[in-house]
Amino acid sequence: MSVALRLTAAQMAVVAELSAYGRELDGAGAVQAGSAFTDIAPADELIRSSPEAFVFGVLFTQGIPAERAWAGPYLLKRRLGHLDLARLAADPDAIDRALGMKPALHRFRHTLPRWIAQAADRLLSEYRGDASRIWAPGSSVTEVSDRLSAFSGIGRKKAAMAVALLGSAFGVVLGGTECGTVAYDVQVRRVFLRAGLVERDTPGDVSRAAAAACPQAPGSLDLPTWLVGRQTCRPRAPSCDVCRLGAVCPRRVWFTPQGVGAARNA
């Protein structure tokens, strides 16, 4: 039987600031890049207007900067001339060639085409070609996380990120928010470690800390924490004095994630 974590006063101050930041971001409709998914306006519009492109964008978000990843579906569409699900499912080799054209759209140029083709096939066979059915009205956080995790190339980490974005960027309302969590992402891990919310960098520790910090909706901490990590709590030379958490963070800057995702995503 697990024992519920109790937060210290210092930890509660950090959580209060992260929660306040999250509410501000929700009010502004902000996403990972601050106000847009990517700095390419047509790419951002595609992600916002096409649920299928959003799912493909989630597939792209691995091993490359977030802005570049979210631009991936748009750039792939430009090279292929389409994002037709039936054609994508039938011809992964065409996806491979398009991704590999210089400049390559992704470092996993031979793995990502298979993921995209398989995702297109799943969207056709299970969701009638409409990715928004994954998060249909009445769905819970757990159900949507499970559905996304069933796609090749989307594990629990990516699913948690996607669920958080569906709420913060698209206003999707899901039940069971208390069952959500933060993504085990290098930015989140770094902030949790340095801000004193965890002592160990493990998926379980990070998840339990998020649940203790915000039991009604742990996933609501994902975006504000990610942005703090991306913008100020950098791996080297963190900008503590201008950080959103600067006044409440213990500034344990010697802590840094190791292993999973740390080197390539920092």
Order of helices and strands: HHHHHHHHHHHHH
Helix content: 40-55%
- Tell the overall outline: globular
Content-based structural category: mainly alpha
Might you state the CATH topology name of the largest domain? Answer: Endonuclease III, domain 1
Tally of separate domains: 2
The helix tally amounts to: 13
Strand content: under 5%
Please, what is the average pLDDT? 88
Q: How many strand elements?
A: 0
Indicate the CATH architecture of the largest domain.
Orthogonal Bundle
Write the layout of secondary structure elements.
Elements: H1 9-28, H2 41-49, H3 51-60, H4 66-80, H5 85-90, H6 92-100, H7 112-127, H8 141-149, H9 156-170, H10 186-194, H11 203-213, H12 222-231, H13 262-265
Task: Summarize it.
The chain has 266 residues and is mostly helical.
List keywords for this structure.
266 residues, 54% helix, mainly alpha, single chain, Endonuclease Iii, domain 2, 13 helices, Endonuclease III, domain 1
Give your account of this protein's structure.
The protein is mainly alpha-helical and 266 residues long. It folds into 2 domains: 9-30 and 181-265, Orthogonal Bundle (Endonuclease Iii, domain 2), CATH 1.10.1670.10; 41-175, Hypothetical protein, domain 2 (Endonuclease III, domain 1, Orthogonal Bundle), CATH 1.10.340. Helix content is 54%, strand content 0%. It has helices at residues 9-28, 41-49, 51-60, 66-80, 85-90, 92-100, 112-127, 141-149, 156-170, 186-194, 203-213, 222-231, 262-265. Helix 2 packs across helix 3 and helix 3 (51-60) runs antiparallel to helix 7 (112-127). The longest helix is centred in the first third of the chain and has 20 residues, at 9-28.
